[in-house]
Amino acid sequence: MLKTISNIWKVNDLRTRILFTLFILLIYRIGSFIPVPNIDKSVFETIDASGTDLFGMLNTFSGGALFQFSIFAMSIFPYITASIIVQLLTMDVIPKFAEWAKEGEAGKRKLAQITRYGTIVLGLIQAYATAIGFNRQYQFQFVIDPSFATYTMIALVLTAGTAFLMWLGEQITEKGIGNGISIIIFAGIVAGIPGHIRTIYADQFVDASQLFLNILKVVLIVLAVVLIIVGVIFVQQGIRKLPVQYAKRVVGRKMYGGQSTHIPLKVNGAGVIPVIFAVSLLMFPVTLAGFWSDRAWAQWVMANLYYDKPLGMVLYVILIIGFTFFYTFVQINPVQMADQMKKNGGYIPGIRPGKPTSSYITKVMSRITLAGALFLAAISILPIGFGALAGLPRSVQLGGTSLLIVVGVALDTMKQIETQLIKRHYKGFINK
């Protein structure tokens, strides 16, 4: 391991990419402490001290930027929401989007531009709602001199912060290591880990009369964390190999083809993206309801749709499973894969080329994706249930999801680093 780490710094391009990524993350963390003008931070100090359940999760994923109400308070969530909408529209909802999705890199660039525009629009709407909602919820003491001009300035600053985060993520993807958006979420979660540790300590070790029971709880928490890490690594590394045989072809005096290979289909091809999407969508109505907490419908939403409530858990599981299938089949198109194999003279032994091949690939992908989706749902939901039974705060209860995202992003980033090392004949982290 130490030799592998030393090899990383011997590759100039890889060293530059890693240092660039760390520099971008430093900018992100500095921006998390730059407050938005015309807000009273003392109000947020009381919110932070009380450990508000409603915004604890959003604060966790923003790396504490929400309770600082910094320029990055909305984090990257508007971009995630815009990405979900654009990807849904490519499923033959808008023919032009579906056409762009099939055009390769050129089409991806057009869809990425639409996603950026959607991020700005959604960010502006969410920024207005956040500023007005917080001020209304906390007895109109949050915004200094509330007026349309003040709200507009706050909304523009928050939207600019989200747009800047989106740009930073794209720069990491292009010039750094890993998926930029996932890396930013990863950094936000990791930055919140010390706060979770302090919360657990303050919550579990204050009462000396139950010290033994609280120590037992902490031991069980640590054990659950280890099991989650092991499980995530096991499933993320799991693949199903589809054998492929290429027919022999004679061109002139040379013979081509005839070799055997395989198509590696990952058990969890969608990674942690479905969990991020599911959290974003599930928290959206709960967050909006918190701004109108005196209304009957808002009270029902907060009482039933939170992720530690029975209905909220069911919706959370359904969203994770649905997004896992959706994102996996967006990334891997069985029909295109079968057509490409047919053009190159390849076939799966025992399966006829063309439509039978695509049907077979779809069936195999559906089975292994179901296993991966159920695993993601279990890892995300079980720690929440255990945390609720142990009486932990909601922000800590989401630790299973946070840990899943952290480990998944770390694995994906590690694979990219290993690919760079192997290309230069260095031994990687997990290759034998």
UniProtKB/TrEMBL annotation:
GO terms for biological process: intracellular protein transmembrane transport; protein targeting; protein transport by the Sec complex. InterPro entries: SecY, SecY/SEC61-alpha, SecY_CS, SecY_dom_sf. It comes from the Bacteria. Keywords: Cell membrane, Membrane, Protein transport, Translocation, Transmembrane, Transmembrane helix, Transport. Its main location: membrane. One of its GO terms (cellular component) is plasma membrane. It is a multi-pass membrane protein. The chain crosses the membrane at residues 18-36, 65-89, 117-136, 148-168, 180-199, 211-235, 272-293, 313-332, 368-390. PANTHER family: SECY/SEC61-ALPHA FAMILY MEMBER (PTHR10906). The central subunit of the protein translocation channel SecYEG. Consists of two halves formed by TMs 1-5 and 6-10. These two domains form a lateral gate at the front which open onto the bilayer between TMs 2 and 7, and are clamped together by SecE at the back. The channel is closed by both a pore ring composed of hydrophobic SecY resides and a short helix (helix 2A) on the extracellular side of the membrane which forms a plug. The plug probably moves laterally to allow the channel to open. The ring and the pore may move independently. Component of the Sec protein translocase complex. Heterotrimer consisting of SecY, SecE and SecG subunits. The heterotrimers can form oligomers, although 1 heterotrimer is thought to be able to translocate proteins. Interacts with the ribosome. Interacts with SecDF, and other proteins may be involved. Interacts with SecA. This is Protein translocase subunit SecY.
